[in-house]
Amino acid sequence: MAMEGEGRKGGRDEGGRGCINAAVCSTTKEKESQWVALKMMMAERAADCLAKLGLDSQQPPAQTVAATSVSANSLEPNFHHRRCRSLRERTGVDHRLERLPSGSMHRTPLHTVMHTSNSNISRPVRIEDFAEHVAQMSRDSEFHFSEEYELLKNVGCGQSNSAAEAPVNRTKNRFTNILPYDHSRVKLVEVDEEDGSDYINANFMPGFSSRREFIAAQGPLPSTRDAFWQVTLLCETHYDEFTVRELRLTSLKDPQAVRTIRHFHYQAWPDFGVPEHPDGILRLARLFRAKLPHSPQNKPTIVHCSAGVGRSGTFIAIDRLLQYIQLSRPVDVFGIVNEMRMERCHMVQNEQQYIFIHHAILYAIQQGGSSADWQPTTNTLNGEIHHNPGFQNDEDEGIVESGF
C-alpha cells in the first residue's frame, strides 16, 4: 500500500529508515487490527438480522469472508460505505447494523443485517386525512395504488416451506405456489406418529389483539377434511362468507363435552375479484366481532377461501383496520398487508383486493353517506395461482367454484 512505500522513501532520504519504518509499521498494524476488529464486529452484529428476517443462518452469503482470513491491505477503507450507498441508490433499502440481545444467535459467526426503512414497511394515514389519501391514490387510473401494491409483491418470499414441500404433504396443497411458511404454519397433533399427519396448509396470522388472532387456511380438500376439522376443533370459531350457522359438536366418549362453532358464509364474493359494494363485508366484519366471545383465552379464528390468501387476507385486513378506526388510530393498509405477507405468501392476492380494502375502510369512516357514493373497481386477475393436479379426484365438490 502507499503508506508502506512512503515509509521506505522517507527512510532513505532522512537516513533514519529503520526508525521511521518501525513507526509506520506499528501504525499500519494498528490500523489493520482496527479494521479486522471492525469486520468482526460487523459480522457479529449481522448475525442477528437473518434470524429476525427468518433466513437460514447456516448458509451465509457466498461472498462473505471469515474475519480471520481478511487482510487489511486487500480492502480499501471506504469500500463498505460506497457499496452501501450504491445499494441504497439502486433499491431504496437502508442497511443498518443492529445488536440484538446476546445469545440470540450462536450457530454461525457471519450474517448480513438488512432493515427496510420505516417508510417502506409502514405508511399510516390519519383518519381525517384518509379520504384525501384515497383520492390521491386513485388519480391517473389508480396508478399510485399500482405503484404501492408492486412494493408488496415480494414481501416474505424466500422463507422456508419445507414441510409443505415434503413428498408426503405435496398432494395436500390445493395450489403449488400457495405453500405455508414453516415458521408460522399451524401444526396439528400427530396421529399415531404417522409421517405428515401434523400438516395442514394454514398459517397463524396477526390481528388487532394478538399475533395469532387468525388462522388463514386453504379450503379443505377431500384428502384434508379430517385435518381441517381437527384444526377447527382446535380454534372454536370458524368463518367464511355470509350465512350464519351454529354447529354443536358432542363427543361420543363424553356427552358433556360440547363445542359450538359459528360459521359465517359470505356468498357474494367472486374468485379473485371484490364484492360490488363494501357494505356487506363491513356488516359481516361487525357481526363477526359482535358474536366473538370476549375472553383473553380466545383461540384463533379460522378464515378460509379457496387458497386462503386473497379473500381471506382482505377480510383479516378490514377487520383489523375497523378496530383501528374505533380507537381513532391512523390507518395503515400498506403496513398491515406487509405484515401478513411475512406470515403467509400472497396475502391480499391482487391489486383490486388491495384497492377494495382502502375503499371499504373509507366507506366505514364516512358511513352515513349514501351507497351511491361508492364506485366499484374492476374485477381483474392480478394474482397468479398454479393448480395442483395431485389432489384432484371425483369427490371434490367444487370448492373453488363455490368460493368456499
Automatic annotation (TrEMBL):
Keywords: Glycoprotein, Membrane, Transmembrane, Transmembrane helix. Residues 145-364 form the Tyrosine-protein phosphatase domain. InterPro entries: Prot-tyrosine_phosphatase-like (IPR029021), PTP_cat (IPR000242), RTP_Phos/Ushers (IPR050713), Tyr_Pase_AS (IPR016130), Tyr_Pase_cat (IPR003595), Tyr_Pase_dom (IPR000387). The keyword Kinase does not apply. Residues 279-355 form the Tyrosine specific protein phosphatases domain. GO terms for molecular function: protein tyrosine phosphatase activity. Pfam families: Y_phosphatase (PF00102). One of its GO terms (cellular component) is membrane. This is Protein-tyrosine-phosphatase. It comes from Diploscapter pachys. The lineage of its organism: Eukaryota, Metazoa, Ecdysozoa, Nematoda, Chromadorea.
